[in-house]
Amino acid sequence: MSKEKPVHIPRERYPELTYPQIVTPEVARPEAPDARDGEAVHLMDYWRVIVARRWTVIAVLFTVVATTLIWTFQQTPIYQATVSIQIDRENNNVLSFKDVYAVETSTDDMLRTQFEVLKARSLARRVIEDLHLDTNEEFRPSEPGLVGSYVAGIRSFLLPPSPASSEPDHLRPVVDNYLGRLVVSPLRQARLAEVTFEAKDPQLAARILNAHANQFIEQNFQYKWEATQKASAFLKGQLTTLQSNLEKAEDRLQAYSRENQILFTEQGRNTATEKLQQLEEEYTKAQSDRFVKESYDGLVRAGNTDSLPQLQNNQLIAGLTTQLAELNKEESQLAVTFSPDYPRRQRVRSQIEEIEKPIGKERDRVVRTIQAEYSAAVERERLLQEATKQQREVVNRVNEQIIQYNIIKREVDSDKTLYEGLLTRLNEAGVSADLRASNIRIVDSAEVPQAPVKPRKTLNLALSLFAGLLCGIGLAFFQEYMDDTIKTAEDISRYLNVPTLGLVPKMSSLQGRRGYGYGHFYGYGRKKAELALATAEPKIDLIAHEAPSSLMAEAYRSIRTSLLLSSPDHPPRLVLVTSSSPSEGKTVTAINMAISLTQTGARVVLVDADMRKPRVQSVFGLTGEVGLSSVLTGTAQLKDAIHESSIPNLFVIPCGPVPPNPGELILADRFRQLTQVLPQYFDYVIFDSPPIANVSDSRILASMCDATILVIKALSTSRHQGYSAVDYLKESHAHIAGVVLNDMDVRALGSYYSYYYSKYSYAYSADSGKTPE
User: Fold this and answer.
1) Calpha distance 546→278 (Å, rounded)
2) Distance of alpha carbon 308 from its chain centroid, rounded?
3) pTM of full prediction above 0.70
4) Which of 440, 457, 499, 598 is disulfide-compatible with 649, CB 3.0–4.6 A?
5) What is the C-alpha separation between 120 and 201, in angstroms, rounded?
6) Strand order in the sheet with 79-87
């Protein structure tokens, strides 16, 4: 084909299909690299899923909230009364053994016990009998319904009643109902408890709770009085026996002490042990002193007397040594000048000898003293060692006797402690029997509640909103997980591995976004007639012509631009538009693509090659006219099949009569000659073909065209269908220009696509330079 633009000729001079068949060699095209599956998921992707499934979320949310509100307003109001009870520590203890066995714990067992007593069945029974609640309508057990009877039958079959529960007790269900409404809540780090009770009658709730607190205090009084009476009787019987045992034990202890001569100091220690301790201390000191004296004696024996501390610290030897040093110094000075016979030198020499004699005597005296002290220390150590050994034997004998003494003494102390304790408790019991005091008091009595606590309408509404929203979002994500349809351009790139030429929005999703006229955003003036046309919802089939300033028309112009730029050196002139399955918008895409190409000034012919279910001829009102099937069967000439439309530069070849064998007609030589002739007289040839998955017509046509556009309907075409369509085209060695994602809900896909369509104004101005008229 020539690269130059063909010369346009009048319609009546269109040639016939008499040209020789020209076989165009097929060139294998490289496939695009596989998309990576492990792409990162962004928060915006989750938001797009929620927006896309918004009706599911709203439906689930409305259902949950409506059900909750109906259930809430059908509930009977429940009132709650509250009483505060303070439980102090016990002051008067009967039979308290804390003096004998006292354990300080971090938790108060008595306090927890009282909290459990507040919930005891016996206390509940006292209140029920006092207020005659068994005759009250609210506490009367209701007859079980159908479901309750069925559950009770199953329970009785699986769990037969125990002998205790089979006894008749008309108050048992009343007590169970009572305890089910009673709640005891201890306050942290305080000796307080809040007791609440729920009832349908607010006055009854307050009356029951006050009676419960009073019965709790009265029961505490009763327990104390009964314990006091039992303790007094027990103590009186035990005191006589303990007194007799104590006297016998004391007599036995005194007799044993006299017999074995066991004496104790004022501090309670044994005298033999005291003496042994003193001897051991003296022996330790003697041993230490002997070590010191032995070290001095060792220096003397070694001849190293100069190192003895006694000599170094001796004042006499120190003074004489100083004088001797001065005389030696003087004698040394004289020896330098005078001979030994010099009188003065002889006099100094005699003085030195006189001083050396007392120094030697003093040194000998000190050495003898050290040796004598060492001998005395050794002897003293020996004597103390023998004395200590003898005293140890005495102490061992005494300790053996003290063991039995301590046994008898502990028995005496134990009997004495028990006797004194029981005597004290007996006196206390006599006083406690007449003292009506309790460590429990009511801080705040129960008042009649003014407002019900159940049902909690605000909380139920908030929880229903949260639960409904959570369930709705969960169901939306589950639907999204189960939905394998293609929704966005990213899905096309990820799963089909082909480029996306453009996105065609769903017309209803552009409502409220000025979907039919965007010039207002950029200051373009529009005539009233154009605005009226933009808001009149024109037909989607010819929207690129009837509403050229709309976003829908701009979407097709964007697809046109992407198609022309797919091969910048050789823009495709034979373009096939197909889809994977019916009703995906391929015919509408082919028509609007042809219209958008005419807006560039090019001559375009639209060929309805879908000879099984043609629709182009009905859009342009060419039903019954001579068409493609007539030309291929040889019953009409090509010039008779080309019809000029009302749109400038747009010509249409309708399908004509529907043939019984469209697949064979497309395989015929006439159709291949048609694809070679039409580009000589038209700038672009657009073929509308059947869905590629249903029949083989599209695969044959794709192999003859320069480019193939695959139309996929968003949220309708599955990934498997799209992948199969792309696979069929690749097997046919077709050049896939890209995919057009049709009928896409802009509102469901987030703000990115809103911006995508809002920027069409700039793209259109750059492409055409003017607004189409």
Assistant:
1) 127
2) 81
3) no
4) 598
5) 23
6) 182-186, 192-199, 79-87, 440-444
